[in-house]
Specification:
Keywords: DNA-binding, Transcription, Transcription regulation. The protein is built from 7 helices and 8 strands. By secondary structure, the protein is of the alpha+beta class. The chain folds into 2 domains: 59 residues, Winged helix-like DNA-binding domain superfamily/Winged helix DNA-binding domain (Arc Repressor Mutant, subunit A), CATH 1.10.10.10; 133 residues, Beta-Lactamase (2-Layer Sandwich).
Length: 228
């Protein structure tokens, strides 16, 4: 019997997504939208009716969506009003340790190349906080920069780089802004939704920014990729 010619075989058709998978995806999307709507309330907690109108579902659907969120402590009900639960704080507390782990390889490479202390700094309102720090292994001396160190976001290369506009400068340098005799070069971490952050190096010796800057930008891009 003649075999069908593979060159003229019928094209494969896309597989249809099972109805159950579609429903699960839609439920997840609505649950996340509900959580976001609760979080977006800046003053008075929204009511069930407010949430139904905001995410475009019925009140009965809101009650169903609240169940799993309540059981995990992500929201809590006060009569007809809904607020964020303490479970959100637990989740938030896991963010910085995971950022530290994800960013360490890029920071390690930067510290070793430049011979200066490398750091990941995240903006928290008007303050900048160092959340990950890696010191070079081969230098005779270097800056000791503690995780958790805070300073105004308008000061120092690490702080000012956080909100550096794209297309203006790729990196920024500073001298003595935070500590007399200290020099810094930093670049923003771009492309991570909701994150204002920078990667930088700090040294007790002047650094050639035209040489160090591209290395800092490269490390910032690697950190952004690791955090996406």
């Amino acid at each position: 019997m003649a075999q069908p010619d593979p060159a003229h075989a019928a094209p494969s058709l896309p597989r249809e997504v099972p109805a159950g998978a579609k429903e699960s995806s839609l439920t997840l999307e609505r649950g996340l939208s509900l959580l976001q709507a609760v979080a977006d309330a800046e003053s008075e907690a929204p009511t069930i009716s407010d949430l139904a109108a905001r995410i475009g579902v019925s009140r009965a659907a809101v009650y169903r969506l609240l169940g799993p969120l309540q059981s995990r402590g992500l929201v809590r009900r006060e009569g007809s009003r809904v607020r964020l639960g303490l479970g959100v704080l637990w989740l938030a507390g896991r963010v910085l340790p995971q950022m530290r782990v994800a960013s360490t390889p890029a920071l390690r490479g930067l510290a070793e190349k430049v011979g200066a202390t490398a750091h990941l700094t995240v903006a928290d309102g008007s303050e900048a906080q160092a959340v990950a720090v890696v010191e070079p292994s081969w230098t005779s001396y270097h800056v000791s920069y503690r995780v958790g160190t805070r300073h105004p976001v308008q000061r120092g290369a690490a702080g000012r780089a956080v909100d550096l506009q794209a297309g203006v400068h790729r990196w920024i340098s500073s001298s003595g802004d935070l500590q007399q005799g200290a020099f810094g070069v930093a670049a923003p971490v771009r492309g991570v939704p909701g994150l204002r952050a920078s990667v930088g190096v700090v040294s007790l010796q002047p650094m050639a920014s035209e040489e160090v800057g591209p290395l800092v930008v490269e490390a910032a891009e690697a950190v952004a990729e690791a955090l996406r």
